[in-house]
Amino acid sequence: MNVLERTSPHFTAGPWDNGTFGVQTWLERTPWRTLRGSQYGCQPDIAPPSELVWEDPLLNQIYKLDIATFLTAEKVSVDGISRMVSLAPDEASRVFMATQALDEARHFEVFSRRMADFGVTPAERHGLMQRVTTPQMRQFYDLIGEQVDRGDYVAALIAHNVILEGMAYPVYRYEIKYWSRLDAGLAQMIQGAFADEVHHVSYGEAYVRSLLQGDVALRNRVDGLLRDFERLMTGVFEAVIDHYIGLYQAAANAHLPLMGDIMIFPGRRMAELSEEDQVRLLLKEVRDEHTQRLATLGIRR
Ligand SMILES: [Fe+2]
Ligand SMILES: [Fe+2]
């Protein structure tokens, strides 16, 4: 009796391909599982946001600034990844990039929807997105865009799926906890985006690692690019501390009874940490994860 050869490869790919980066896997892990039954990234029966998010002007402002910041990164992702679909050098990568482009478009839509839910028009949203983009962040996003502009797939992949998405990890983890008591729906939306970013990073790591193996010249080139990004990453966090930390501190102080016992960082209650300490701890997490990622890629072991 003849049987279907389900395990033989159906795309051109490299040794990085473990068969989990296609559309079938995407359907199974995203629409059929993480997002099943969701509307704009959260379950329809989720609790509505706390009245405080509408009524406390400071909290309302921070809520919108945070979502605007996510949107700046998601926009960079939609723009870059959609262009990378046509840059991808093999079929399996091209198909993966197409699924990722849809993920990023969904993240962009979900957060834009939340802004509209709070009465922010698209024009006002654009204004907020510009306002939260510090010069340091602009530089960081520009360096990402340059890699795609040059049509250099590996460099663009490192910029997007290793650096930017790797940074989203700890930041989204932080934000999920920060907003958990005030808006469980937003926390769920971020959780859904986070799950996608994890998958995007795993492709980025697998692809880059297999390409770097035995290629010293490429490894040196990649190392130089990574150092540029590392410098800019620190600048982005320093700028957030300078520009926004006062706002965040005031909002947190006003709601300590509600939020004070949340532990964003293991064993450290929010009430015991200043906002600046939190941003510095977050930067440390971003750096630690980045260092781990470099080891996974086989760089600077
Ligand atoms: Fe995203
Ligand atoms: Fe992503």
What does this protein look like?
It contains eleven helices and no strands. It has 301 residues and is mainly alpha-helical. The chain has a single domain (47-297), classed as Ribonucleotide Reductase, subunit A (Orthogonal Bundle), CATH 1.10.620.20. Helix 7 (153-178) packs antiparallel against helix 8 (184-212). The protein starts with 22 loop residues before the first helix and ends with a helix. The relative contact order is 0.12. The model has no long low-confidence stretch (mean pLDDT 93). The structure holds fe (ii) ion (2 copies). One fe (ii) ion (FE2) binds at residues 74, 77, 104, 107, 193, 197.
Overall morphology? globular
If you average the pLDDT, what whole number results? 93
CATH class label: Mainly Alpha
CATH superfamily: Ribonucleotide Reductase, subunit A
Bin the strand percentage: under 5%
Bound molecules: fe (ii) ion
The unreliable regions are none
Q: State the helix count.
A: 11
Count of domain modules: 1
Q: What is the distance, rounded to the nearest whole angstrom, between the alpha carbons of the first and last residues?
A: 51 Å
